[in-house]
Amino acid sequence: MPLGNVSERRHGAPDLGVSVVILALDKRANIASGLGKSAHHDDAPASNEVGRLWLPLVKRVKQPYLGCWALPGAGLRSDISLEDAAFTALESTTAMHPHYLEQLYTFGGPARSQGGLPMVSIVYWALVGQAEAETLHEANNVQWFATDALPEMAFDHEAIVDYALWRLRNKIEYSSIASRLVGNEFTLAQLRHVYEAVLGKALDPANFRRRMLTSDSLQQTGKYQAEGRHRPAALYRYSADTPIEEIYEGSLAALTSHKVLAANTARQHR
Amino acid sequence: MPLGNVSERRHGAPDLGVSVVILALDKRANIASGLGKSAHHDDAPASNEVGRLWLPLVKRVKQPYLGCWALPGAGLRSDISLEDAAFTALESTTAMHPHYLEQLYTFGGPARSQGGLPMVSIVYWALVGQAEAETLHEANNVQWFATDALPEMAFDHEAIVDYALWRLRNKIEYSSIASRLVGNEFTLAQLRHVYEAVLGKALDPANFRRRMLTSDSLQQTGKYQAEGRHRPAALYRYSADTPIEEIYEGSLAALTSHKVLAANTARQHR
DNA sequence: CCAAAAGTGTTGCAAATACACCCATGA
DNA sequence: TCATGGGTGTATTTGCAACACTTTTGG
After folding, report:
1. Is residue A100 in a domain?
2. Do A77 and B251 touch (CB under 8 A)?
3. What is the domain count for chain A?
4. Residue A167 sits in which domain range?
5. Is residue B81 included in any domain, yes or no?
6. Do B162 and A250 touch (CB under 8 A)?
7. Chunked in runs of 10, what are the mean pLDDT values of chain A (270 residues)?
């Protein structure tokens, strides 16, 4: 009985769009490339805590869920790839360029379009580095939110964000994806802060060091960085970019990441 | 310059459909519920080899790729969930009911629709048990193929199958998904044959036994099964269904599998 | 000197592997 | 009886977690 005006579309194809979960770290977790002291949104955590993950959301200006916050997205055209569509949606709403972009899941079905038109969303998730994240000028309708303090969100977008965070937490364990959240050169402490922010817990510095070094994915630059009244730390870089990923992504590796890699190489390898 | 008649659709939304990669084992790998001796397609492997994975394909009767084999699929309506659409596509083309169904990936973009209309495919992958697989009467336009001997396939469907196999190989390591490929009760040797077929290599029986038993996901039935001129093997069953999966699928677990579970409980818990 | 983080060493535990060995059965 | 797979025992290795310890710097 409700949804009367929608019933005529019940057997047609649903609308199709892409959305993006964009994730970045605050200053505390990644001091490598940063110089200033204040984090996003003037919400810098105390310096002895773990860093936090943030994401930009867009305020809806239409019904349904008017005034709620939603993931950046756009309709889907047929002349570009799905990944390019996600890349463009990200770029046009935030003017940022991701360091990593991967398909997350496709959501659809009548349950998620309460009162609205049927909608299928192909959702991607992206990582942006510290420097890139700072280029976003927060406006009235696009703002950063900490993932552990999300606002009232539209549709099922909160569940989608949760799923993206779950995927990131898993993927950081077996891939070199953390490389997309630190600068080109970094100390092991800085890299550890990234892991701590993603996993949401502190890690043993000694064991973390050994785990990273024995994985053979890092190489020393020969440079050192002094950061306080203590011994300077060696700077490292990732040796080959995305070595582990390709193994794990299997046959899908060939179908993805072209645009992101191009964008990153264009800006001098991240 | 080519594709002239398609160019007018270039900026519209692409068509949307679901496809399914349906996987099953041959007799050698799963003797639990079977009685006969011949495997699918009269291609029973020698009894000392590992079993193989098979999937049903549909022969195309239209251009493009006329005569090639393709994944079962259907268009997408907006009054049912994506999973229900995949379930229905599987059921209507093969008359089988899956024991497992999960979204695999969404494929799209202009590159994959050579000469045809732009097409986005939401692909699911499914597992069917031995008994269910035997209900499929092979016709002229739907047949079983071994995954290591695929025919000429339409579109990018061969890459999609490879990705589904990769996902299965990974998932069998950390979830109880193998339960969907064996019968209700099984010996550890039979369960091992499933793992061997999926992973494509032989496993140490002693270590496999210990790994399974210490995982606490199996329980003994008290029954035994004699299978040759040697000591009879104890029969086991999976204790709680899908215990590990839910942990690993995280927040997504709530959004999926309702229909498959219903279908399986309807037929007495698989 | 001393605080504080960088970096090293040591121990113990848990899981996976390799492989030797007994057990129970049907032919 | 003996061949065959079911089932157990055990040594070795590996990676990880815990934590004590040494080193190097700035103040």
Report:
1. yes
2. no
3. 1
4. 16-266
5. yes
6. yes
7. 41 86 81 35 46 95 93 93 95 95 94 80 94 87 96 95 95 92 94 96 97 94 93 93 44 51 39
